[in-house]
Amino acid sequence: MRIAQVAPLFESVPPTGYGGTERVVSFLTEALVALGHDVTLFATADSRTEARLVPCAPHALRRELSREEALAPHLRMVREVADREAEFDVIHAHIDHLPYAVARRSRTPWITTLHGRLDLPELVPVYREFREQRVVAISESQRAQLPWLSWVGVVHHGIPRDLYRLHETAGEHLAFVGRISREKRVDRAVEIAVRAGRRLRIAAKIDDADRAYYERVKPLLEHPLVEFVGELGDAEKDEFLGGAAALLFPIDWPEPFGLIMVEALACGTPVIAWRHGSVDEVLIDGKTGFLCDRTAEAVEAVFRLDRIDRVACRQDFEERFVAERMARQYIEIFEAALREGRDGGA
């Protein structure tokens, strides 16, 4: 099958540091190539892939342009994909609703995986206008936020089986990975660690949009039990996650998926998480981590980590969250869209 993958331009594919969507696009693209498909990736020029790369920006835009300024290169990318649509059997986009006006007039089926939250009122008019567009959810929780869209599937993210290794022996410290933002609640993570008397290592990025929150929590990051290490790549993340007693995921928003939870499980590391969004689709309470609603529950969970089998965490990852499974699910969705087109559907 001839497949176009259309990635955001904020990070390279894969990103050198933090970047959830671009990381998933990379894992999916490489898995599709490994399965024998002809894949073209529209992404930044500094991306790395076994697919055919079409550079649409010289490098990752996050550190250089605001989201508003980055709109222009994304629209140019959409135009280039549309101009080449006859080269593909299916076009798979990861840039939200940006291509919908073009996709509506395309002879080649476009399918969009929605990676973000959908519970924002300003999104409703856009999605109502383009409700015929085929979309894929990354969790049942995300899908439920706009159940009336033209959903063609729910596909949980997957990562390469050998990206991380099992660490059967855990360290004593706790880990936090993500953005320093109100939604991710690093302040909760610090409180949990301090109350449990455990060291907390934080690997995170600070975006300009989250600068005010960072300034508010900055004094917490100076606690003697807290170590801030900045952004990490995949190679560094293996040791960072694998050496932790647990990953703390104390979010305060409807998380659409939460790839870092899967990365922790791949290392054999259990997760202590808040029961929001997709969390209970990813974690099995009492087997691969603990689901909490309050800080006191999370602190108590720290003292129950010895009940979690790290080998079972890794096994659950291998059974449910590998990249090949993700790629095969997408192929089924692509094939269904092609059959629909041949049968005279939308």
- Low-confidence parts, pLDDT < 50 over ≥5 residues? none
Secondary-structure element string: EHEEHEHEHEHEEHEHEHEHEHEHHH
Net shape: globular
Distance between the termini: 20 Å
Structural class: alpha/beta
Gyration radius, rounded: 20 Å
The CATH superfamily of the largest domain bears the name Glycogen Phosphorylase B
CATH class of the largest domain: Alpha Beta
Q: Per CATH, what is the topology of the largest domain?
A: Rossmann fold
Q: In the CATH classification, which architecture of the largest domain applies? A: 3-Layer(aba) Sandwich
Major sheet size, sense and barrel closure: 7 strands, parallel
Characterize the structure shown:
The protein is an alpha/beta fold. The protein has two domains: 2-160 and 322-342, Rossmann fold; 174-320, Rossmann fold (3-Layer(aba) Sandwich), CATH 3.40.50.2000. It is built from 13 helices and 13 strands. It has helices spanning 20-34, 71-83, 100-103, 124-129, 140-145, 186-196, 211-217, 234-242, 259-266, 279-282, 295-302, 310-320, 323-342; strands spanning 2-6, 38-44, 52-57, 90-93, 110-113, 134-137, 150-154, 174-179, 200-205, 226-228, 246-249, 271-274, 289-292. A seven-stranded parallel beta sheet has the order 3-2-1-4-5-6-7, with helices on both faces. Strands 10-9-8-11-12-13 form a six-stranded parallel beta sheet, with helices on both faces. Strand 4, helix 3 (100-103) and strand 5 form a beta-alpha-beta unit. Helix 6 packs across helix 11 (295-302).
